[in-house]
Amino acid sequence: MARIGVDERRARLGRRHRLGADCQAADPVEAAASMVALHATDPATVHLSVAARVPGSDVAGTERALYDDRSLIRMLGMRRTVFVVPTPFAPVVQAACTDDIAVKQRKLLVKHLNEAGVAEDPEACGRWLAAVEESTATALALRGSATAQELSADEPRLRTRLSMAVGKTYAAQPYVTSRVLFQLSAEGRIVRGRPLGTWLSGQHQWSPSADWLPGGLGDRPVAEEARVMLARAWLASFGPGTAADLQWWAGWTGGQTKKALAAVEAVAVDLDGQVGYVLPGDEAPEVPVEPWVAFLPGLDPTPMGWKERDWFLGPHKSKLFDNTGNIGPTIWADGRIIGGWGQPESGEVRYELLEDVGSDTTTLVESEAARWTNWLAGVRVTPRFRSPLEKQLSQG
Fold first, then answer.
1. pLDDT (tens digit, 9 = 90+) per residue, 216-262?
2. In the chain, which residues have pLDDT < 70?
3. At 311, is the secondary structure helix, strand, or coil?
4. Of 40, 133, 255, 329, which residue is the least packed, with the fewest Cβ within 10 Å?
5. Would residue 374 count as lying in a domain?
6. Is residue 130 a part of any domain in this protein?
7. Strand partners of residue 321
8. Which domain holds residue 359?
């Protein structure tokens, strides 16, 4: 089998992820499509990921694509994570990943409702949940758009409390509101609209899918076909990668991953001793990329695209990841991570290089740090999941 080494993988990353200076995206939709989807668990990530890939982009342009043109949509997807996806591709993600998640989460919510004593048995809890969902969906349709708080006023049963981790020090009794809205969203019935507040806010208005988009999410492919389409998109953006990489990224079973790779006729390649895969005809070297530097936000889709990250991460994991596997803000040069960045209260971008990269690359880093300080214009972005290095750089 053909060999694809680390240098070639890094060259592909620079070009296909739109990070090289001569291969950036034209707009937020193209930026998202180049990554299959943009991570949106942390709302700031979407805007920063776009800004890293689209010259001259700003928050207003990304918001226009999300909320006016609606050419991008925020939805639950791979690994039960919130993503921003090009709208035409949303039915594929829904069928390939989200529909399965919705089934599992419904069972879990019914179990938690039963444990909280909401009804006498799981079957009755299921009926209770269905009734609350329909009432909530009706209230949302009447309003057109609404916050969780407004919907709770319309449907008081949303204020029912669950009993979580009873007897533990971290026991809690949260309202069922967010779980019901999560479920309706996972089933594609409602969508997250504009944030409440600034672009850093994690709270959103909700709207019926059919109102937000003509026909809602549209016709979905069958699940197996959708998984093939998603695997093809991942290989185009992230290939070569291993079967374990794809399985982790998509949140699939081993069997689902194996079938999807077979269906796209993925070609096996040698990744320095590991078996990786590319699309048919994609074994040839990538067009060389000019030297480049990029500042990426926490949870950017580039470092979160593979399970195995040694080929671009090196020995820097302990400083750049939190305890649960979430990456913080990073600095990249020519396809590898060389440092991290953060912002103190004053708002400027501070950085630290974790290896000697030479004077030419250091000059590019300094220029990029200044560009980001100017782009953020005093807005301080605190990642939802904070790495040790980001915390250190944000002090003072």
1. 888 899 999 999 999 999 999 999 999 999 999 999 999 999 999 99
2. 396
3. helix
4. 255
5. yes
6. no
7. 327
8. 309-393
